[in-house]
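tmp note - Skt5p
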Amino acid sequence: MFNLAVSYKYGIGTEKNSEKAFYWHQIAAENGYTDAINNLALCYKNGKGTEKNLEKAFHWYQIAAENGYTDAMFNLASSYDSGEGTEENLEKAFYWYQKAAGNGNGNAMNYLAMCYEYGRGTEKNLEKAFHWYQKAAENGNNIAILSPFSAAF
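out:
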């Protein structure tokens, strides 16, 4: 199911078809396939193959994140951070950035560093900000490399 969804999404062996990709992501997600759960959330977020619905995107991010899918943890944190699909909650954003960063997500490492740098969802802590900017840069996050902290690398 998931491979069929991806085939339709990217036009692999067939014509691209966002609606069919969405349909097969939904079927795979309802059967518990975590890659499909996150992709279904992205379909809702971006309005690909279905109407844009940020609340449904948030719902599916939450399911995938709670099932250990690292990219969904980052997406869920971003939703809490921006208030897209849910109420803004900086403490929950910080929590999910921590979880995703701990699982190796370079973008989450960068955002976690910013949380520490600016005191978003946690107490300001420049030493921890530096640590996470450094980890993000070491993991190839180009934005972290451009951080004011990067001069210390």
